[in-house]
Amino acid sequence: MKRTWLLIGLLLIGMVVPMMAQENKSFADRLMFEINMGAGVKQHGITPITATFNAGVNVTKRFYAFASVEGMTGLYKNGAVKTYERAANIGGGLGYNLWTNKSGSDALDLKASATTTVGGSNWKNTAYTVQLVEYLGAKNSSVKPFFGLGYRYIDSHHSAFANYGNVYVTIGLRF
Hints:
The chain is mainly beta and 175 residues long. Helices cover 14% and strands 59% of the residues. An eight-stranded antiparallel β-barrel has the order 1-2-3-4-5-6-7-8. A hairpin with an 8-residue loop joins strand 6 and strand 7. The longest helix has 21 residues, at 2-22. The model has no long low-confidence stretch (mean pLDDT 88).
């Protein structure tokens, strides 16, 4: 299994490096950073809320890859008491620019990501997200606000929580 992932990684690097050489931008100009807050619709008594930081690189003009660090809180009711469980997740994802308007100020991207729990988190899980993200703002602006709408599936490894799959909304800033 480890060999398979290693081969896939080497293959991707082999495909990405030539594409990066075709871009005229420096590596620093292709970097992007995002911070966002997200929330899901309540299902099985759980309402997930997230705070996420993404750091990525534009591989081509339309395609980008990113690493993700996420703090997740699962709000739920235990009897008559409202309580929560927390998780610290890391992972990554891919994005593709589907549309940019002629002035370059607005863009619509399709993003997919996967994260998994690390450390001594109470709520062990693996989360998969697919979403459409609308970026707003001036073409040359260094900060662009965005909002996203998509689907999130959380494979819960916690005896008190069932697996979760529902609508997921995000709002944030890209630098």
